[in-house]
Write a structure and sequence with these properties.
Elements (H helix, E strand, L loop, with lengths): L5 E3 L5 E3 L3 E2 L8 H11 L3 E3 L7 H10 L8 E6 L6 H15 L4 E6 L9 H13 L3 E7 L3 H11 L5 E5 L7 H9 L3 E5 L11 H10 L3 H12 L2 E2 L6 H8 L8 H8 L18
Parallel strand pairs: 3-4, 4-5, 5-6, 6-7, 7-8, 8-9, 9-10
Antiparallel strand pairs: 1-2
Length: 276
């Protein structure tokens, strides 16, 4: 299997282009899922306090036998933890729960504009980065106006914006904003819940390449410059999702997949989402 390439972030650190997502991985099987993913070759584990499985994330890491420096760990500050004091508590809690001395990346999970605390939360992440507890800082589910505001008010550009991207929700305008600021677009739910597996551009590319529809979609992400984070607790599927670096989609195939964009979300709209 071809090694996963890395993307250099705007702060100089490197991010594996594909990672293993922890969303909806049951807490009692999270350790084994992470251990299996690392054995398959993943070197980025994307978690969050909200997911309730950070202890398993740490268990899988520590039992894998891999040096801490070889695994890129991400977690997120949840909506109810916005604000200077609560953000600090959230990051320190994640460090303790996972059992590590530093985190490679911490994201603001959602901007929650109705609370108007995301700039203060961002400033706190800047402080934690300066203290060495976090190596890189970024955001998740930020729209263009949220990004422009934190950059204007703090002068610090996120390294990454993790947003929902799939063939049916491609968000080209927001991805262009990210690119203009040298912000990596990381894609959650990159397979779109399987809604485009049977779409003709996907099945045709799968037939030509001998790959599965999920592999074609993940390859589309890679060639689009996205950093997808697929999820599966099945070792065979984990390995399949990672095996997307030994083939290319043609320009015509990329254009055909681009035509599948309908703007259809599987998750909420960041401009109004405020669940605590």
């Amino acid at each position: 299997m071809t090694a996963t390439p890395t993307i250099t972030l705007n702060d100089g650190h490197a991010l594996p282009q594909i990672g293993f997502g922890m969303w909806q991985v049951p807490a009692d099987s999270a350790g084994e899922a992470v251990r299996s993913a690392l054995h398959a070759g993943y070197r980025l584990i994307d978690g969050a306090h909200l997911y309730g499985n950070e202890a398993g994330m740490g268990e899988g890491l520590h039992s894998s036998g891999l040096p801490r420096e070889e695994v890129f760990l991400t977690t997120k500050v949840w909506n109810s933890d916005h604000g200077r004091e609560r953000t600090r508590i959230s990051v320190e809690r994640s460090l303790l729960t996972i059992g590590v001395d530093w985190l490679d990346l911490v994201l603001i999970h959602w901007p929650v504009p109705s609370r108007d605390l995301y700039v203060e939360t961002w400033q706190t992440l800047i402080d934690l980065q300066n203290e060495g507890l976090v190596r890189s800082i970024g955001v998740s589910n930020f729209n263009a106006d949220h990004l422009e505001r934190i950059i204007a008010e703090t002068g610090v550009v996120p390294v990454l914006n993790q947003i929902e991207v799939s063939p049916k929700l491609q968000q080209p305008e927001l991805r262009a904003v990210n690119a203009r600021h040298d912000i990596v677009t990381q894609a959650w739910t990159p397979l779109g819940g399987g809604r485009s597996f049977d779409a003709e551009p996907i099945t045709a590319a799968a037939a030509r390449t001998g790959k599965s529809p999920p592999q074609v979609i993940l390859r589309w992400h890679i060639q689009s410059g996205n950093a997808p984070i697929p999820r599966s607790v099945k070792p065979a599927r984990q390995a399949e999702n990672l095996d997307v670096f030994d083939f290319d989609l043609s320009d015509a195939e990329m254009e055909a997949i681009a035509s599948l964009d309908t703007g259809q979300r599987t998750g909420p709209d960041p401009s109004v989402f405020k669940m605590m």
